[in-house]
Amino acid sequence: MLEADSSLEFFIAGYCLVAVFIVSEGRLRKTEGARTLQRGSSDRGSTLLIGSAFGTGLVLPLVLDLLGVGIFSVSLLAGCLALLTMLAGIALRVWSARTLGEYYTRTLLTTGEQRVISSGPYAKIRHPGYLGCILLWSGFGLLTGNVILALLYPVMFVAVYLYRIDVEERMLGEALGDDYAEYRSRTWKLIPFVY
What is the pLDDT along the chain (195 residues), one digit of tens a residue? Predict the structure, then answer.
């Protein structure tokens, strides 16, 4: 089990922030289209992949902790930085969802009146909500106090969201045409001036 230092508190705090994230996701989905699990033909399994990654992300720390595999003590500094990373991820995700408004959906769907959103966090990056999720899960990986997960979560969630981004950008390119092509030409996928 986790050592009797602050690692247990960080472990619990990490799960609490994931719970805050999940509750906020539900509250941000205002329309029927935003709440549906119905996937459009453009989804290409990306919603299922994200859901599987989330499920794995929640269960794996408990399993590895019970097995006593890969456990390390989370220092106060590392734990606080991981908590701040998770909070930044949640804040970015909420800001992104609010900026998208009615276009914020769980699965990849577009509407007939869909338009390019280029305000708020979308002014510089095309997928700030996904960056928020990557930050959330990367911070949580460290808070689990498991070296395997601290290394795995950033890689796993970057891979999952890069696939989602590829699929989503194809869909938006087809649905929004030249407007989206112009938007792509002046923005970054995830990190301004980097990628």
Answer: 444 467 899 999 999 999 999 999 888 876 666 566 666 678 888 999 999 999 999 999 999 999 999 999 999 999 999 999 999 999 999 999 999 888 887 777 776 778 899 999 999 999 999 999 999 999 999 999 999 999 999 999 999 999 999 999 999 999 899 999 999 999 999 998 899
Alpha helices in 46-146 (DSSP H): 46-67, 76-100, 128-143
- Taking the C-alpha atoms of residue 142 and residue 61, their distance in angstroms, rounded to an integer, is 11
Q: How many residues does the chain have?
A: 195
Domains of the chain: 7-185 (1.20.120.1630)
135 closest CA partner among 127, 145, 124: 127
End-to-end CA distance of the chain: 39
Q: What pTM was computed for the model?
A: 0.91
